[in-house]
Specification:
By secondary structure, the chain is mainly α. It has a single domain, classed as CDP-alcohol phosphotransferase transmembrane (TM) domain (Four Helix Bundle (Hemerythrin (Met), subunit A)). The chain has seven helices and two strands; from the N terminus they run H-H-H-H-E-H-H-E-H. It has a two-stranded antiparallel sheet with strand order 1-2. Helix 2 packs antiparallel against helix 5 and helix 5 packs parallel to helix 7. It is globular. The N and C termini lie far apart (about 50 Å).
């Protein structure tokens, strides 16, 4: 089978988890663009973010870390954490020059953050805030504007802050306390979205 479909040689558990994350991202787009449901889109994004947090951990524990898997993870991260927030902000916050500039800055920083991660040697630290953490800041800001009537500048501030954090010199230990905090924050946000 791999003779006819050589890409299947890379099929392993971590890459399948990454692919499930992609499916949740596509589902989020469906709920945004077809159903107009912010709640279900954010539920799907939360699940996609969970898959992204799990795939690297599983790859490390199973000894299945590959360059292919890293590239797949990066492509899925760019789609979920950089492109989908554009839809969120455009559909639920609005569109004008300042917001467009903040979105472009956020996406460019996300792109550079992901490229930098792939280009440098892997070690026990992330340099700059990983894109799932940046996305969480942005979607929490959008949620607060839509459901708690916060001013729209909260979203601009989240986009710009998340952009700077992604390309910053900040060193974050892999699987450290900050990542556990991100898990807790993500779970609390998921529960809030489901029950608010």
């Amino acid at each position: 089978m791999k003779k006819f479909f050589p890409v299947l040689q890379y099929m392993n558990i971590p890459n399948m988890i990454t692919t499930v994350g992609l499916v949740f991202g596509i589902a989020a787009c469906y709920f945004l663009l077809i159903e107009g449901s912010l709640r279900w889109a954010l539920v799907c994004l939360s699940l996609a973010m969970f898959m992204d947090l799990v795939d690297g951990y599983v790859a490390e524990k199973l000894g299945q870390q590959t360059e292919f898997g890293q590239y797949v993870d990066t492509l899925v991260d760019f789609f979920i954490c950089c492109i989908i927030p554009i839809l969120l902000v455009y559909l639920f916050v609005g569109s004008h020059f300042v917001l467009l500039a903040a979105l472009v800055f956020y996406v460019a920083c996300g792109l550079w953050r992901l490229a930098y991660y792939n280009a440098r040697e892997a070690d026990n630290f992330f340099v700059g805030l990983p894109v799932p953490g940046a996305m969480l800041l942005v979607i929490m800001a959008v949620w607060s504007v839509v459901y708690f009537y916060m001013p729209s500048w909260v979203v601009y501030a989240a986009l710009v802050s998340a952009g700077f954090l992604m390309v910053s010199f900040v060193r974050l230990e892999k699987y450290g306390l900050w990542q556990k905090g991100l898990w807790v924050l993500g779970v609390l946000f998921f529960v809030m979205v489901m029950f608010s």
